[in-house]
Each structure stands twice: as C-alpha cells, then as structure tokens.
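Predict structure. Chain length: 155.
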Amino acid sequence: MKLDRIDLQILRLLQENSNRTTKSLAEELNMSTTPVFERIKKLEKEGYINKYVALLNAKKIGLKQTVFIGITLQGHTRSYLEKFVKQINEFPEVVECHRVTGNFDYLLKLVVKDVEAYEKFIITKLTLLPYLGSVQSYIALSKGKQTHELNLDVL
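Prediction complete.
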C-alpha cells in the first residue's frame, strides 16, 4: 500500500489526537465519514497504525525519574542477544530498548519513581543478568523535548 496525501493527513490528525471521532476527521478533511472510516481500517490492517493509547503524565502519577542505560553484553551471539531482549521485556521499568551502534549494544530507557527505585532495579534485576558486560547510566535532569508524533512531512 502506498500512502497518499489523504492517508498522511489522517495519520497526522490521529497522531495529534487518536480520540477524535471519524466524523470530526471527515469534517476536517472535507470528506464523508465512510471513506475516512475505510481508510483508517485499511491503515490499521496494513500495519501503519499499530494501536491507540493514552499518553500518561509520568510525573503526575509519581514516576519522576527517567534514566537512560547503555548496555554492553559479554558476547554478541544471537543467543545472547535474544536472551537479553527476552529478559528486558519482563522488566516493567524499561519503557524502551534499542539495539544501537557505537559504544553500547543496547540503549534502555527507564521511567521509575526516583533514584532509589532505579538503584533497586540495578541491584535486583539488571546486574543479575549473567551475560552483561558493562552498564553505563545517564540520569535525566530535565526534558527538552518529548513527542510520539512522527514527522510525516518528509515523506
């Protein structure tokens, strides 16, 4: 499926607010609701839209500390990589895990209550993984930008 101008506009609008009704999207696009609904269903079916979520205010609910962790593994076999990712996916503190180039094998993003919760995570979970090489942490002091909206203008 190749995305056209209308598909991209639907994706833009849904990124801004996925809670919008099909009717309101259709009005903004100067279309009727049925074709907009059909396009959204096609975008979902084709995997352009993975799911709809509510973005929570982490600080408001008490998760005030963001930490980035650079991980180097002892080995780089497929088995090590798969075991690491499988284990990391079991840790609810980890909200993102990326295999990266450079000095680390993986970059993790954690959102936790505070520094003490981060320390507990390190001691009781992360450092118990048998295939860890090194761990380097970066505690976020403030947030300069955070968005979940992809730049569709470059397409």
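Summary: The mean pLDDT is 95.
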